[in-house]
Each structure stands twice: as structure tokens, then as C-alpha cells.
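pasting for ref
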Amino acid sequence: MVVLLMAVWVGMVEPEVFPPDLVCVNLPALRLQVWRDGILQAVFPMAIGKPGDETPVGEYSIAFRRRHPTWYPPEGGQPVPPGPRNPLGSRFLGLNLPLYGIHGTNQPGSIGHPVSRGCIRLAEADVYRLWDLTYEGIRVRIVYERLSLRSEWWGKALLVFPDVYGRQPLSAGGLALTWPEAAREPSLVQEALDWAEKGPALLVLGDSPRRPEGPRVGSGTGGATHPGSGGGSPRGDADGGRPRYRPLRYYPFPSVPWSGGKGLGLEASK
């Protein structure tokens, strides 16, 4: 269930507005989607540009592709040939925006963080898969979407991603103007938004017969509790003990651990 949720809830626009073949990147979600023939083929975690060297949003395409690329340091110096010292990894897919592209990395610990000079990094196994799924000329859409509203079998939910570049501040009051359900428990909504400064938060907005599998349940009282330990845990109702869950709650969402990149000791290469 958790894998399925991560594949769908990445804050993208709905697939019906996509062209059939598309690479879609959502910066706050730190996720890259690949669509072929209108079908979602893969979702990869990624690293993006650090604040000050932000990955640019917009509509692009893959202009060229290179196996085992040579890295030319932007500040000058000796080129770095293919090999374990090359920060581009084994594959480079260049955008039609000069100096930007999607590539592998020799720093796998950087995935899930905004630490590059603007390029999009994937783990080596993922960039191999991306290579197989794409071609020169495929469209690349880079968006900045912090919110993803979904209706699932267990209820209606809003996934909130960190504001990695400080472009989309959110408030409990602002969300309540769009989603009236959020006005019922503004303190819980604010707790979810506070969590979203560190990592994705799943805010369940409506009644549901059961909670989604995997995430921990926000108690709404200043912390998160495991299911069954109070807070968001089930309770019997007056109809004979049938389990029921809180109509509004949040889950710290499973993800690559979030960090702003400080103290990671990661080289800021393309």
C-alpha cells in the first residue's frame, strides 16, 4: 500500500492533462515520474538544486543523452573523466536548457535532498531505468506543487510537501478557505503543516472506514502515536463496537529522510 501511495501522491497534475510520453518532476515532492503512452511507468526519488541554485520550473525536453559522460567543472579546472570520481554518474540526459540535465551520481546519500547546482540527480539504478524509458525529444515538465488532493477508498486526503525553496507558504487558515474540513481542527492542521517543514505530511480530511496502511498516526495533541496506542487509534462506537477513526488526522508520510542539505558534507556538484 505504501509503495502504491508514493507512486500516486507526488503532487503532480492529473494524468489526463499530460501528453502521452512525459517526464514530470515535482520539486517539493523530490520525485520524478515517467509516463509512456499515458501510463505511469516509474517514480524515482531525486536530488535537486540547493537554494540559490534552484532547479528551474518549466516545460523542456531531453535534447541529448550521453553514456559515461565527462564532467566539466563549471568554475573551471580539469575535466573529470568517467569513473567513480565523476559526480554525473554513468548517464546524463541533457535538457534543452543549457547546463541542466538529469543524471546519475557518485553520492547516493544526496538523493532526497536539495544539494546540487541545479541538475536533477537519480540513484544509479534509477538513471539506468530512466534511460531505458526515455528518448531524445521526450517532454520534461518541472513543477513546484506542495499540495496533492486525492480521493481514495479510505477517505479524502491532502498530501503536503516541504517548501524546499520557500515559494509556497501555507497556513491552517488558508487551507480552511479551500477545504472546509480543515477548519474543524485548525490546531491539528497546523501540526501537519509544521511537520511538512521536515517531510511530507498526509492530512486525512474526511471520514474513512479504516486508516491507510503504513504511516504513523498524528494524535493532534503534539505528537505522533502508533496505531492502536491512542490519538488516531480506532475505537468502538455505539453500534456494537465497529471500529471508527477520527474524521480529521494526519500521518507523517514515509519518504526519503528530509534535510535542507546543511551538515551533510555533500559536494555541491551539478
